[in-house]
Amino acid sequence: MKKRGAFCLFWGVVCALILLQSNKAVCAGPAEQVPAAKFTIPAPDSAQAQKYLGLKAMEPFGIPDIKASLVVVEFMSALCPHCHANAPILNNIFKTIQSDSRLADVKVIAIAVGSEKPELEAYIKKFKVPFPVFLDDDSSISVAMEGVPTPTTMIIATENGKVLFSHTGVIQDPDQFLKQLKALHKKK
Predict the structure, then answer these.
(1) Which domains are assigned to the chain?
(2) For 57-66, which contacts have Cβ atoms below 8 Å and span 24 or more sequence positions?
(3) Tens of pLDDT along 84-121?
């Protein structure tokens, strides 16, 4: 438990320093240097999540298993204050995607890095998160993505797991993020 606390404290300090230094937006743009999303995500915790993602079974899966052309992946932590600030923004992005028939094949998920199940459940309840959130309690998914800080929002092509766009920090301009998503979707 001490290691876990130290790990969370370390990443919390790193995230805070980066975000303070950058006025809440570390990086936004094409993601040429981000590795492909070749990690395994835990099994969905509900039939609703399985159906939403178009998964064949309630078992661990990868980004290419999601029945969509693009997936928006939010790397977050249940205890990160910047993730708390980003939660309502991402909820609204999800609702906009859901209401736009042209984006019907775009899905949204979150990966809760270094969080414990009770913390994550409280986060989901507090922010009324409407999309599936998957626990990365041992940070193995984050490590596979070379230690992605939280919050980081990525747009990933499901066909090959290629990260097409990455934004680290609170999304200050949701309309610009959606514009980027629509432009990438149009290319698909």
Answers:
(1) 2-187 (3.40.30.10)
(2) 62/37, 62/38, 62/161, 63/37, 63/38, 63/39, 63/156, 63/158, 63/161, 64/158, 64/159, 64/160, 64/161, 66/107, 66/109, 66/158
(3) 999 999 999 999 999 999 999 999 999 999 999 999 99
